[in-house]
Input
Amino acid sequence: MSKATGAGAGTTLYSLFFFAFLFGPLIIMVVTAFNSSSFPRITPWECFTTDWFSVLVNNARLMGGLGTSVIIGAGVVVCAVPIGLAGAMALSELPPRLRAALYTVLITPILIPGVVLGISTIVFWGIVGRAFGEEYASTFYNGIFLTLIGQITFISAYAMLVFSARLQRFDPTLTEAALDLGATPGQCFRKILLPFLKPAIGSAAFLTLLASFENYNTTVFTILSDSTFTTALASKVRLGTDPSLSALAVIIIGLTLIGAMVHEARTRRQALLRSGKPQLSPLYANPVTRVMTHPAGIAIMLIALAGLLVYLGSRHDASACKAGILQQKRAVQEQLLEEQRARIRKLREKAGPATTDAPATNNPSPFGGAFKPGMLAPKEETAPANPSPFGGAFKPNALKPKE
Output
């Protein structure tokens, strides 16, 4: 074997291990979501079922936490994106020394542990609430408000980094020329800077939304008596997992794939339009392929396919298969019990009848027959009429005069 062949085999083997490590857990979760076993597993396979998706949807705590996470995530996007944009623009306008100092200040919340941020948020706004004389039912002690504020403090820094990377490619002479031509700063911002930052705004909004959804360390302290989707999911895992979590993973993977395919179609379409001759592409040969390759058309087709799969899955009935599996399990249990009884009988036959040197008695129990039925019943008196050493002084009717 040549060195090149050995290197190629090593690269192939490494690639297989890499992709197995990367996608193996996802494949396992997808498969376990459709197994009727009450514990997430691939083998032994029992029945194909879609009931775990119904279990997930009918979980009131998870669905309530999902609604809370949507509210908090939307609030974080609305607040964190403008704050991050303002910080990035301030950094781009300052001289190098002040820029380094301000950058350190703005990036610090990312470096602080989430536990510290959560506790400090509760303490700070509790002090503010008491300073205004507010009661515990006020906004200052509301879990959603505290979580929103706590997440904005560090998620804004993520948005700032996205905008800073985009602004490094911006040519400031464009705004200077617009100002020289009579444009106001507001017009320069709306007509020049915002269109340039449009991709960064979408990326920052998506990033802040995901960061808000998946955050746990800060949220678990600030949410108080409420619960987000992440905290509800963590509580469910602590109490015991089931394949409904795998069903959740299938939904997330499906949405991610749909979004990625639509985004890829949009990117290719924009590249084709920028080429200046989209009509020369085979994709534009006829209206059918043109619609099918359009991002909106691909999105409609993928959503329709997902809806069809959901409909077919809801129509699938695995009750007969589950009843057969349950009957098989009961048969196996009966067989195991019968084998255990047979082993016990063999052990008794092998031991033989019990023989001891002491004479046989009616009470072989080592507890002296204390637990024998009827032991507490009064016994008939066979002893003398007055066995007491006190001469029967305490016997009932002892003081009664004798005839």
Observations:
- The first helix runs from residue 3 to 32.
- Residues 292 and 387 are 111 Å apart (CA to CA).
- The radius of gyration is 38 Å.
- The domain at 52-242 is CATH 1.10.3720.10 (MetI-like fold).
